[in-house]
Amino acid sequence: MMKDAIKKYVESPDRCGLEVYVVTKVAPRLKRMNFYEGAPGEPSLYSSMKDTVIGILREKYLSVEAEYVSADQIADNQNKFYIIQQDEAYKPFAFINDEIGTFSQADIQDATGVLFKLQRETDVLWAYQHLWSMMIPNKTSKGIMGRLMHIDKQGDVFSALTDPILTIAKKLDLLIIDGRIIASDHKLLQQFFGFQDYIRIRASKTVSIVEEKGFVQNIEKMIEYCNRGNGKPKYAKKMMRIADSKVLKMPVDKMMENIHRSKRWNGMIPEENGVFVLNTYAHVELLIDLLDERYTRSDITDEEYDTDVKKVAEPVPQTGNGNS
């Protein structure tokens, strides 16, 4: 369970080491930050960063409301954390295993993010914070920035800030655990980490599975559907919803038999010679809803409900026959 994987770092922070890296556009992309160790009693930037990371993990990623779902459900736009498995086709954070450099003032110009590495024994959790341009004041030397200084006799005065500074906020945009990316903001992934490629690859694999099963006559309509959107992966996201469909994993004859017995689905999608014929994009969306089991029916009232989000229920323990 994802919360258990995160919890071990939060419950025993004293047993965790922290390293902080700046992510840059140029190789080596990972550059370690070194920290000034002041005199006893002086504020410690290192300790403050560690407390901040642990605090965010506790408050955001381990809150009672925090729920984790497969990235295949990302089209539903749930307010949840999506679990994205990196593989050879999609591995945007592969550089964490590459050569590591040392961060210096000159690297600020190329800084794109900060990676916090929490390590407990052999286990590692990475937490990423994206650096937006506003978080690096004076980066382009176009704005007028100032800093307050104290000079004897003159008191507190301002001087020009000529070097860019790095601002680290109290936020973590995503986590990386055991090669899996945990993120709620998939727009950030699309804008900076090529997530649209992952979506299209997953959608394409899903279409291939449907084709192999042989119950759709014109698979080209599904391919066209995925490629809609003027370059945006809106429709490919919907196709991802059926990547792990339990209906799709059924034997075709059993699946079709159950569909024909269904009050909702019998006759909804055109058929010829026992296979579906997808003449329109609306037919494709009906097929997605069917395979995703979007609609559910009450055992008690026989009412049917439309639900975008499904979670397999735990078996109900039987306490008796109800006649006592």
Characteristic terms for this protein:
two-stranded antiparallel sheet, 27% helix, 324 residues, 15 strands, alpha+beta, nine-stranded mixed β-sheet, elongated
Your description of this structure?
By secondary structure, this protein is of the alpha+beta class. It contains 8 helices and 15 strands. It has helices at 2-11, 45-61, 186-192, 195-213, 220-226, 234-240, 252-261, 281-292, and strands spanning 17-24, 30-32, 68-70, 81-85, 100-102, 111-120, 123-130, 146-151, 155-160, 174-177, 180-183, 271-272, 275-276, 295-297, 304-306. The strands form 4 sheets. A 9-stranded mixed sheet has the order 3-4-11-10-7-6-1-2-5, covered by helices on one side. Strands 8-9 form a two-stranded antiparallel ribbon. Strand 10 and strand 11 (180-183) form a beta hairpin. It starts with a helix and ends in an 18-residue tail after the last strand. The model has no long low-confidence stretch (mean pLDDT 87).
